[in-house]
Design goal:
By secondary structure, the protein is of the alpha+beta class. It has 8 helices and 12 strands.
Length: 237
């Protein structure tokens, strides 16, 4: 079933369409095709020709790459309302630098390279918006990288949780719920799964969060970031 795009636009206000009037946005939307992606399915693969641009309507997507030895490294998450596959808008054909996969069942509006390139020529603001979105991704990655270099393991994990709460968190009674596993948190904070589990358990005992199967209920990201880590456990990063 197609997602009602008009309601989506009112709620999410995609940055990709900033500066365009309603008639232009309708024309751009009409040129796309809605597609559904199952949870845990890879939508695009790194190293493959960038053939499609995606606007995420519902669900969640994460961007990752595989190292030469096959290690999966998660970089960023894409919330509903943002695009991925930006290399498609480039004049020179390019490859996807990273892979993108659906974390949950997701719906996206998809444009082929030929279609979106034509739209970019007709509506140059699309190129500027895509560049600004890519710039924001770079800024987010810079912040994460700086955290990995300068912060302790607890501070890195706390920052990852706070960033996820702002990006993909769902407001529920009692706080903000994150659909994320310990292994994913460990990967993004550059710590071992054992360390991530010990820290989460310590914070749960202190009432900062609640661990659930495949989920974390964060009571307050501000409290977590301000909290002085005083656990007596021996952490091995």
């Amino acid at each position: 079933m197609d997602i009602p795009v008009a309601a989506f636009l009112r709620e999410r206000k995609p940055r990709f369409f900033e500066g365009l009037d309603a008639a232009d946005i309708r024309a751009i939307l009409a040129a796309g095709t809605q597609r559904r992606f199952l949870a845990n399915s890879v939508i695009v693969n790194q190293g493959y020709p960038a053939a499609h641009l995606f606007l995420l309507l519902t669900g969640r997507v994460r961007r990752f790459f595989l190292t030469e030895d096959g290690q999966k490294v998660v970089l960023l998450r894409v919330p509903a309302g943002d695009i991925f596959g930006e290399a498609t808008v480039l004049a020179r054909p390019a490859e996807y630098l990273v892979s993108s996969e659906a974390i949950a069942s997701s719906n996206a509006l998809v444009w082929s390279r030929g279609t979106i390139r034509g739209l970019c020529e007709q509506y140059p603001r699309l190129v500027e918006n895509a560049l600004l979105i890519s710039f924001d991704y770079l800024a987010a990655y810079r912040a994460v990288h700086a955290s990995l270099i300068g912060n302790s393991a607890p501070k890195r994990l706390a920052q990852v949780l706070a960033n996820l709460a702002d990006g993909i968190g769902q407001k529920v009674p009692g706080g903000i719920e994150l659909d994320v596993r310990n292994e994913e948190l460990a990967n993004e904070a550059n710590i071992s799964p054992f360390t991530a589990s010990r820290l989460l358990s310590a914070w749960q005992r202190e009432g900062i969060l609640v661990k659930r199967r495949g989920k974390v209920l964060l009571r307050s990201s501000g409290r977590l970031l301000r909290h002085e880590i005083t656990t007596s456990v021996s952490l091995v990063t």
